[in-house]
Amino acid sequence: MNPVLSAHNLHKSYAGQKVVDGINISINKGECYGLLGPNGAGKTTTLRLLLGLIEPESGHIGMLGLSVPQHARESRLRVGVVPQVDNLDPDFTVAENLLVYGRYFGMKDSEIEARIPLLLEFANLAHKRDVKIPTLSGGMKRRLTLARALVNDPDIIFLDEPTTGLDPQARHLIWQRLRELTAQGKTLLLTTHFMDEAERLCHRLAILDHGRMVAEDTPRALIAKHIEPQVVEVFGEGVTKWADESAAQYSSRFEVSGETAFCYVEDAQPLLAHLKGYAELRYLYRPANLEDVFLKLTGREMRE
Fold first, then answer.
1. E strand intervals along the chain
2. Is 299 among the domain residues?
3. In angstroms, rounded to a whole number, what is the distance separating the alpha carbons of residues 172 and 166?
4. Which of 145, 156, 206, 211 makes an SS bond possible with 21, Cβ 3.0 to 4.6 Å?
5. Rounded Cα gap, residues 129 and 147, in angstroms
6. Distance separating alpha carbons of residues 266 and 5, to the nearest angstrom
7. pLDDT tens digits, residue range 43-102?
8. pLDDT, tens digit, for every residue of 149-201?
9. Domain check: are 153 and 253 in the same one?
10. What is the CA radius of gyration of the chain?
């Protein structure tokens, strides 16, 4: 299968510092592909390179059979973008925002008007067609921004943290809509800080750190490859002393972060039985997840 979006050995620096350092990506039609990484890992720069908004120092980008940035303008006619921050026009109504945006793609007003009911239904905003943007909730604005990205019926949709700041109901609705898009054969490139979002939506994903791709695979394969299958989080008074004395005996690997000891195990039962003797300690027993992989590969320290 020929990829609809690919990048080979991309490099980009700012002020002598490598921001993107040899990234390779190949995304197929109908796939949701995720880019994960701490702040400063190179995600936004990678998106800008793939869209042809900036030029790489070296490397090759292909999008929908066209070379980027040489033919970025032509390729972007078949692309939709959901930016990290909503940039809807507050002076226009919901429908007018879609109409004006569609004109940027050279679409006729009649063509856009024909698509508006479908887009508003998709975003669950048909009842808000004629209201101004300032009256919408944050979730409504986010859904409208997603609908706006579809006005030109794109083949590829770039989504930069599409659910940041939304309540659980709005997040789940957007997740449902994104799954509908991939079922229609649309290709999604998603950046997110929500590991559960990436685990639910992405067919494959890459984890970036310091401009490099440190891992790439399906979410389940990454978990199986990098993390023990079970995790016991131990917390409470005296957890640091307990971890120093006992964690290594019952864990394949453990980390202490703040007031919690994260114990990674193949079989949790011996550790759970041991913890019953420590009334002052509490624990959470769960299967390993994508967040465990992310923290193992990129570290737990804060990034500014």
1. 5-14, 17-27, 32-36, 58-63, 66-68, 79-82, 156-160, 187-191, 204-209, 212-217, 230-236, 253-257, 260-265, 281-287
2. no
3. 10
4. 211
5. 12
6. 38
7. 999 999 999 999 999 999 999 999 999 999 999 999 999 998 889 999 999 999 999 999
8. 999 999 999 999 999 888 899 899 999 999 999 999 999 999 999 999 999 99
9. no
10. 22
- Say if residue 302's pLDDT is above 80: no
CATH of the domain at 242: 3.30.70
Per the structure block, which two tokens stand in for 51?
């869209």
Rounding to the nearest 10 degrees, give the CA dihedral for residues 72, 74, 80, 83: 30
**Other beta carbons less than 10 A from residue 238's beta carbon:** 11
How long a stretch of residues is the chain?
304
- Give 204-250 as a DSSP string: EEEEEETTEEEEEE-HHHHHHHHS-SEEEEEEETTHHHHIIIIIHHH
Max distance between CA atoms of the chain, in angstroms, equals 72
DSSP 56: -
Locate tokens 């604005």: which residue? Answer: 141
How many domains, the chain?
Answer: 2
> What pLDDT shows up at residue 2?
84
Q: Nearest CA to 88 among 127, 37, 123, 63?
A: 123
The SS3 assignment for 135 reads: helix
d(CA 237, CA 100): 59
- Closest-CA residue to 147 (of 91, 93, 80): 80
Rounded Cα–Cα distance for residues 52 and 66 (Å): 11
CATH number of domain containing 206? 3.40.50.300
pLDDT at 166: 87
